[in-house]
Every structure is written in structure tokens, then in C-alpha cells.
Amino acid sequence: MKHKKLLQRLSEFFDMDARARAQNKEDINELLSRLKQKEVDLKLKLEITTDEEERNEMVQKIDLVHRQRKKGVAMLKELMSDD
Amino acid sequence: MLRKIFLPSIIMVLIWGFWVSPDFKVISAGVAIFLFGMLSLENGFRVFTGGTLEKILARFTDRRWKSIGFGMISTSIMQSSSLVSVITISFLSAGLISLYAGVGIIFGANLGTTTGAWLVAGFGLKVKIATYAMPVLVIGTLLIFQKSKTLKGIGYVLAGIGFLFLGIHYMKEGFDAFKNTLDLTQFSVEGVKGLLLYVFIGVAATVIMQSSHATLVLTITALASGQVSYENALALAIGANVGTTVTAIIGSLSSNEQGKRLAAAHLIFNLVTGAIAIIFISQILQLVNSFSLLVGIDENDFSLKLAVFHSIFNLLGVVIMLPAMKPMVVWLEKVLPAKKVHRLKPRYLHESTIAYPDTATEAVYNETLHMWDNTVDIIAHGIRIPRELLLDHTQRAEALTQSFPVKNEFDIDRYYELKIKSLYGAIIAYISNATFTWEAEQSGEIYWLRKTNQDMVDVIKDIKHLQKNLLNYAYSPNDFIKLQYNQIRIHLINMVRQIEQIRGAGSVDIPSVMLDQLKLDTANEHARQIELINKMIYQQNIDGDMAISLMNDKAYVYDFTRKLISIAETLFIKHNKGLSQAEKAIQLDETELREIRDSQKAN
């Protein structure tokens, strides 16, 4: 088992494509967590904002971040399915 | 500091001069009108650049003998070498002829001017072209107001000629006071001293009267009445030839270095010719006598002999100076160099970086960033906000527009010439100089960077158009339109700030979110602006003309804010090496952004 895992790691190390995919997955995960944090922050801000215009802008921004997150999740799923 | 006090000092001295001497006032006005005529002439000839006149001139001046012939014939017809020389200066300044051809025309003009002496001495005739100055001025001005570009051009040329003569007329009027003091008998001196003295008097008289013709008339009259000896009259003619160059020198004051070179060539030619005539005066006199005898001129007809002398020494000058024409042009170009325009040099496009696709792409990217910085500079100047304040987020945009109202237009063309065109040109040249084959990835990147550079140039053009109305409506009595144009400035300040924020976004911020947000804001703002303009038209807050200007300018602003976004996307997202692939790919496309806007509207 140990040898098998070691071999897999070695082949991953020498396979450029696999390495790039792994890096990409890592980046997407990291970005998704940042986007999630941003969405949470915006929602908290929205709760305390009373100005109608500002609220509308914020709702739009939340929608934007949410859609980017969805896009990121879809990208991640596609990468996983390729693996 | 010195430059700041120079102009006010000159104005003060002039005012003092006007106060003290009415003659000085008339002479100065003459010089001013003359220079204005030169400008008008240049404007007129510029209209025909690249057209028929250029072709005609090129055809008549492409060979040395042709340009000399052209100068000779035109001067014989116009009976004014000064006019031919100033027109030639304006041809040169407008880039219609080469300096070499111009010098040829001047040489020819010196031959042509000798026909004047023949006319005066032989027929007592004096063609006064100045009589036509007034009608020419009126017709010229009438043509300037026509819509046709050609008629306008002809109008400027005619008005220019009219002003030239009017200027000369005033200069003469002003100098009239000094003219009476020219009693030639009081300077009667024999020998070389007398010769030099009369040459000097000839120069002075021509400068004062602004006409070598007038000096010749004066000389012939004095000769006939026995006021001066024949030898002294010849010296006066030599002096008149040198003095006549003053008109060209005055004319070259308002022209570029080409005009100055030509005036210098004119001066050199006439000085050398004059010097030759002085040194070899006895030989030339013998030649005059032989020629006079040959054609049957009476031995005592000094007036005609003077005309012969005038022709011979000018012809001699041309013959002697002809081989020196080319070296003289080269020398003049060296001693009177074109003013160096300090164009911005590229910072990153070096020979060493062009060897490999990766380093070359990086160099183009960095140079494009350099160009972006200059574009921001132009935007700041265009909306009349100091750059450092424009980029300072602590300064409220509204307050800035209040503190820095639009007072004048910024010369965007010049700035573009100095700080953008050179960089853009260098980038294009650098890309095309690459000897390797671009790989697909770099080729794509280079394509986008080139498009970004073009977008920046377009943004600058838009700003140039916009700034006219920013100034026009800044002081409008209509508060609505004034406010709208100020809103455009505020919008642009915020736009540039947001793009610079994306540029400097750290790890906490997500540049893709910021740019998508900017895209959304821009689209929302555009929709809101259209609604607002319609409302203002409906409520009659602005009139039709204002509405059209505002709609056009808002369209400009929308167009160029989209270009700014595209620039930001290329420079700070897609080709930003500091961002991960994930951060670049997460950006929303047009459809997704529209869906957000639509869902917002639905709510």
C-alpha cells in the first residue's frame, strides 16, 4: 500500500498536466472560501443597511458573488469528474 | 521664472514705446500685421498640402534650374522679391517644398528683382502691387467665410497677401519720419570708405523703407540730380540688395526652423553677392561698360547702367553661389537644427528582451502598463483634475470638481504626440521586429495587449472630444446641464479610481469581483443616464441643442468607460501573472451579468 501511494505521488509529480490540475483545484478551493467569506460579509452588511439605494447595490453585489461561487463550484466539479 | 517675467516685460516695454513714440506704434503695428499675414498665408497654403498646389510646386521646383526659374519669373511678375521670399517661407513652413527648392527660388528671386531696376530706369515705371492690397484683403476675408475648404484656403492666402502689404505699408508710414533725414549729399565720401558707407546707407534705407525698389528709385533720382556719384549709386544698389533680406527675416520669425533656414540662406546669398560686388567693383564696372557699349546704352545714361550693374552682380552671385547651394543647405540644417521634441522613450523595450517570446511578451506588457499611466495622466488633464488628487481615494470626487473647475482646454494633441504616440509606435515596432515565431499562448497575449494599446488611444480621442463641451457647459446659465457635465467628471474620477483599485487589489480583495461589479455599475449608470436625459427633455429643463450634446457626450463616456474596463480586464485580470487561473476564469460573462441586472429589475 505504501509503495502504491508513493508511486502515485511520484507519477503525479512528473505528470505536468496532473500537477496543473491539482494546483487549479487548490486555487479554486481557496477562491471559493474567499468568495464565501465575502458573501457572508455582504449579507451581514445588508442586514444593517437601511438606505434603499445602498441595499439594492448590495443585493446586486451578493448576487454577483453568489454566481461567481456557483461558477467556481461548477469548475471544480468538472475537474473532479475528469479525475 | 525668467520665462514667466519675459512676456510681461516685453509687453511693458512695448506699451512704454507706444506712449513715447507714435511712429514706433505705427511701425510695431506694421510688423504685427505683417506677421499676422504670414500666419494667414501659412494657414492657407496648409489647406493645399497634399493637393494640387503641392503637385504644381513639386513639378516646378524639382530641378535646380526650375526652382531658380520659378523664383525669377514670379518675382518679375510680382515685382517684389520680398513677397516671393515670404511666400516661399510659408511654402516651406507648410511643408509644400524642400529647403533646397526654396533656396533655388530665392536665388531666382534675386535675378527677378533686377527687372525692377530696368523698369524704373528704362521706363520710369513702378509697379505698385500694394495698391491691390485692400481689395485682396476684402476678397480674401470674404472667401474665408465660405464653407468650401479650397475657397477657405484661397481666402487665407489672399488675406495673408493683403495683410503682408498692409503691414509693409504701416512700416513704411512709421519710418516716413526717418526718410526725410536721408539726405544723400551729406555722406558724399570718395574711395573705399565712401563705398562702404553708401552700402551701409543702402542697407539702412531699404530696411527703413521696406523696399529695395524704393531705394533704387531714390538712388536713380539722386544720381540724375547729381546728389551722388555713379560709384556711390552702385554701392547704394549693393546695400539695397542686402537690406531687402530684412523682410524675409521678419517673415521667418513666425515660421518654423525651415523658414528660418531659408531666411538665413537669403541673407547669406545677398551678403556674399554684396561682398563680391564690393571686392570686384572695378572689374564689374568694366563689364558693365562693355555690356552697355554692346547693347548701345549711352555712356552717360547712368540710370540704365545702374540697372545693368544690378543685373550683372546678381547674376554673378547666382553663378558663384550655385555650386555652394547643396553644401549651404546641409550646413543650414546643421546650424539651425529642428527643435528637438522630447518624446517619451519606452522603458522596457530593449534589444536584450526581444530574444525570447516570454521576455518579449513581458516587456510589451510592462510598456503597455507604462502607456496606461500616461493615459491616466491625459484623462486627469482632460477633466482638469490634478492626477495625484484624482487617484487619492480620500478626496471626494464632488469636492474635487468644485475645487478644480474647468477653466480652459488642455492640449491633448501635444501630450498625445509626446507621451503616447512614441510609446505606441515603439510597441508596434518591437512586436514586428521579433525574429522568433510567437507561440499560440504569447501570440494571444500580444494580440490583447495591442488591442489594449489601441483602446487607450481611442480613450484619449474621446476625452479630446469631451473636453470641448466640458468647458462649454461649465459656465452655462442652465444649472441642469452644468450639473450633468460635472457628473461626467465625477463619474470619470470614480471610474479611474476603481480601475486603479483593481490594479492594486491585494489577496483579500478579489479583482474579478471588483471588475464584474464595475461592469454592472457602468451598465446601470448608462441606463440611469438615458432615463435622466429623457426626463430633463420632457420637463424642458434643457433645450434641444443641450440634449443632443449631452446624449452624444454620455454615449462617448459610455463607450470609453467600456474601453477602460476592457483595458483593465486585459492588464489587471487576464494577463496579470499574480492572479491564479481560477481567479481569471471565475469572471462572469455578458449573459450572466445581464441576468443579474434583469433579476434586479424584476425585484
Describe this structure in words.
The complex is a heterodimer of chains A (83) and B (603). By secondary structure, chain A is mainly α. Chain A has one domain (2-82). Chain A is built from 3 helices and no strands. Chain A has helices at 2-14, 16-48, 52-82. By secondary structure, chain B is an all-alpha fold. Chain B has 2 domains: 2-335, no CATH class; 351-602, Methane Monooxygenase Hydroxylase, Chain G, domain 1 (Up-down Bundle), CATH 1.20.58. Helix content of chain B is 78%, strand content 0%. Chain B has helices spanning 2-20, 22-47, 52-61, 64-78, 81-93, 99-112, 114-123, 133-144, 149-179, 191-209, 212-224, 230-243, 245-253, 257-279, 281-295, 302-321, 325-335, 357-382, 387-390, 397-403, 412-433, 440-472, 479-503, 511-538, 544-574, 581-585, 590-602. In chain B, helix 10 packs across helix 12 (230-243). The longest helix of chain B has 33 residues, at 440-472. Chain B starts with a helix and ends with a helix. The A-B interface holds A 24, 27-28, 30-31, 34-35, 38, 56, 59-61, 63-65, 67-68, 71-72, 75 and B 508, 510, 512-513, 516-517, 520, 580-583, 585-588, 592-593, 595-597, 599-600, 603.
Briefly say what this structure is.
Chain A is mostly helical. Chain A is built from 3 helices and no strands. Chain B has 2 domains: 2-335, no CATH class; 351-602, Methane Monooxygenase Hydroxylase, Chain G, domain 1, CATH 1.20.58.
Topology:
The complex is a heterodimer of chains A (83) and B (603).
Chain A: H1 2-14, H2 16-48, H3 52-82
Chain B: H1 2-20, H2 22-47, H3 52-61, H4 64-78, H5 81-93, H6 99-112, H7 114-123, H8 133-144, H9 149-179, H10 191-209, H11 212-224, H12 230-243, H13 245-253, H14 257-279, H15 281-295, H16 302-321, H17 325-335, H18 357-382, H19 387-390, H20 397-403, H21 412-433, H22 440-472, H23 479-503, H24 511-538, H25 544-574, H26 581-585, H27 590-602
